[in-house]
Design brief:
Blueprint (H helix, E strand, L loop, with lengths): L11 E16 L2 E13 L15 E5 L8 E3 L13 E5 L3 E13 L11 E10 L8 E10 L2 H4 L7 E7 L9 E2 L5 E11 L2 H20 L9 H20 L14
Membrane topology: Multi-pass membrane protein
Family: Belongs to the ligand-gated ion channel (TC 1.A.9) family.
GO molecular function: excitatory extracellular ligand-gated monoatomic ion channel activity; serotonin-gated monoatomic cation channel activity; transmitter-gated monoatomic ion channel activity involved in regulation of postsynaptic membrane potential
């Protein structure tokens, strides 16, 4: 289970291809997203000549038979419930590739001040907890892919829409040294809420009740029904807000503008 290098001073470069399929849900301080990652690195002990093996250039090997870098997401807040792949692909040049689906539940601070037109940016930091710079394990982010919205809808019909995936800083600074003396790489996932549900069920009825409240001022003051109409509208608006309050996400600190 040691690093597969001929010289311990050799740097093991781990390449990650990261694809986000959809953001399934965001509750309190947690984000649930469906992702796909490909980990690629070189194993110096699996080089072979295809001519000696009937021209076979690539084989599938059980994961337990090879050393695999322990790449994890630092913001992880739950276990991956998707079935894990038990095979890795090994080429005749010693290149090992592991494709793994993920159902990531990660921590993400939510700012609900502009609810329901809010937008959030969550960080996903990839790194190794066991290997530091002394054993020369470095992580490089090869590609970050955002699935088109038309394809993403087949995974999620919820209220969250995936906007963008970015890597902060220039390409030369992707490879960084964290305070724990490990190689890390960070991806920023930006999502926004689809406000149609809240516009139809909350803002439109509230606007209609406020319009009725304003029209009630047109009733002459000497009509006795004016006070009862105003009271009825106010009571109806209060009951309506109380009934739809369950649609609001839990928040703390600053109140939403709505």
């Amino acid at each position: 289970q040691l690093r597969p290098v001929l010289d311990w001073r050799t740097v093991t470069l781990v390449t990650i291809d990261f694809t986000v399929l959809a953001v399934l849900d965001m509750v309190r301080l947690l984000q649930s997203s469906c992702c796909l990652s490909t980990v690629d690195f070189n194993n110096n002990f699996t080089n072979r000549k295809p001519a000696l093996y009937h021209g076979v250039r690539q084989v599938s090997v059980p994961v337990k038979e090879l050393w695999i870098p322990d790449i994890s997401v630092h913001e992880i807040a739950g276990e991956n419930s998707l079935p894990r792949s038990h095979l890795v692909s090994v080429s005749h040049l010693g290149q090992v590739e592991q494709i793994q689906p993920h159902l990531l539940v990660s921590s993400c601070p939510l700012d609900l001040h502009h609810f329901p037109l809010d937008r959030h940016t969550c960080n996903l930091t990839f790194g190794s907890l066991a290997h530091t710079f002394r054993p020369k394990l470095k992580i490089w982010l090869s590609t970050v892919t955002l699935i088109p919205s038309s394809f993403s809808r087949s995974f999620s019909q919820g209220e969250w829409e995936l906007v963008s995936l970015t890597v902060p800083g220039p390409t030369s600074s992707i490879l960084s040294k964290s305070p724990s003396n490990t190689s890390t790489v960070r991806v920023q996932v930006t999502v926004r809420r689809r406000p149609l549900l809240y516009l139809v069920t909350l803002l439109l009825p509230s606007s209609f009740l406020l319009l009725l409240d304003g029209l009630a001022f047109l009733i002459p003051p000497y009509y006795k029904q004016r006070l009862s109409v105003k009271t009825t509208i106010f009571t109806g608006h209060f009951i309506f807000i109380f009934m739809v309050f369950s649609l609001f996400p839990p928040f703390r600190g600053q109140l939403p503008l709505i």
